[in-house]
User: What shape does this take?
Amino acid sequence: MHVPDGFINAPTSAVTGVVAAGALAVSLRGARRELDERTAPLAGLVAAFIFAVQMLNFPVAAGTSGHLLGGALAAILVGPYTAVLCVSVVLLMQGVLFADGGLTALGVNITDMAIVTTVVSYAVFRGLLAVLPRKRRSVTVASFVAALVSVPAAAVAFTLIYAIGGTTDVSIGKVATAMIGVHVLIGIGEAVITALTVGAVIAVRPDLVHGARGLRQRLRLRVNGALVDAPAPTAPVAARTSRRTLWVTGLVTSLVLAGFVSFYASASPDGLEKVAHDKGIDQEAKQHASADSPLADYGVKDISDARLSGGLAGVIGVGVTVVAGSAVFWALRRRRGADASPVNTGV
Assistant: This one.
């Protein structure tokens, strides 16, 4: 759903840029509270994983494909504020290095793909957890539904933005029907990927999943006929899997997905591209400012072998994203530590 340059007029793009900048500023402050020495490395990995999986377009209808947006996945794993930053880092890397998503439309893309998906999915996720049994399985179920809802929500958001600042004269009703219809199907794929990933992390390190915090019920024992709380465990439930092992496994998985599996992804246009072509809303689309980038269109320039070119581009993308994301989140973690340090008054 990466919006290219030319779909949305300059004033509307500027307004969404202001909205995105404000949301990022709020998220930077909020992420300080969410991140600690355990989750800061995971946040950088989540950004890299989202980048990798977004390269895996899957078919959803005749001549149409979809890919992960990632807002729900990131929000559940590392928290909503950090999630906005994760997806924004991915979108920035894609726009600057790979010519995917317009640079003048960066505010539109962050608003739509980072903010809307995160806010909607996390609200649905928390609402479901409030009524579901307090079990880990409930986290996976809520993850599925939250991700499913987040994708058509992003389609609705794009339609509203297009209604305000679209550069072509196309019936908004037709755009809305087509966008929501195809993105409901894409949402199913998003939901499956999100639920499987969240379930896999919960299985080995539930203590690292932001959305699973506070769900563990205190074990109660019957002593002399009365129920009493059992002592809290002194070690993490899944201490058998270290954070380093989880991080390395996640990084290797991301590299394999982007560097190898992506070659087999669907070549069909994604939901927005298909709707834009069919309904004519791409008539004013402009060439990307980074169209001549060495990595444009997810291929390495001057390498003729498509498999090698795409694989190298994917590996580079994962590497750059994990470095950029980790740098941001470690800086926020260090800032939180500095803010929490007592001030030496010299007394």
Remarks:
- The two ends are 58 Å apart (CA to CA).
- The longest strand covers residues 58-61.
- The CA atoms of residues 174 and 279 lie 8 Å apart.
